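Query structure, 136 tokens:
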């Protein structure tokens, strides 16, 4: 049994693998989710941006991002909606990082790999002297 303080209200609650907040905050979150869903069900609101949804529903952007990342809000029918890249904050629609950050991270990983290969090659470049020939 994992007792924790709710990150939203600070109340003590039993943490489960399915909930990271207390039951009362979960109810409030569900109410806000339904508000967002009702807003997005209208055809004219499907082209809304994150700022427009926040302004119209009063639901904080962090909660909208949580709904998107958890898969509760699907972006397939919401072309102007996205969430920030974990690294740079650029708006993305899938994954955790934008294409630029992914390329940069991959380039850095390749550089580290090359450096490790060079270090391994340097280990094999050890020179040995022949003590018998030199008379020592």
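Result returned for the query:
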């Amino acid at each position: 049994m994992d007792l924790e303080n709710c990150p939203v209200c600070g109340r003590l609650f039993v943490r489960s693998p399915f909930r990271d907040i207390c039951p009362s905050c979960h109810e409030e979150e569900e109410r806000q989710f339904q508000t967002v869903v009702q807003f997005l069900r209208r055809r004219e609101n499907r082209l809304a941006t994150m700022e427009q949804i926040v302004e119209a529903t009063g639901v904080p952007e962090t909660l909208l991002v949580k709904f998107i990342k958890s898969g509760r809000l699907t972006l397939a029918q919401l072309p102007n909606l996205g969430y920030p890249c974990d690294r740079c904050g650029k708006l993305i629609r899938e994954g955790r990082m934008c294409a630029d950050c992914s390329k940069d991270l991959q380039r850095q990983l390749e550089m580290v790999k090359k450096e490790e290969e060079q270090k391994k090659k340097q280990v094999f470049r050890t020179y040995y002297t022949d003590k018998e020939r030199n008379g020592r």
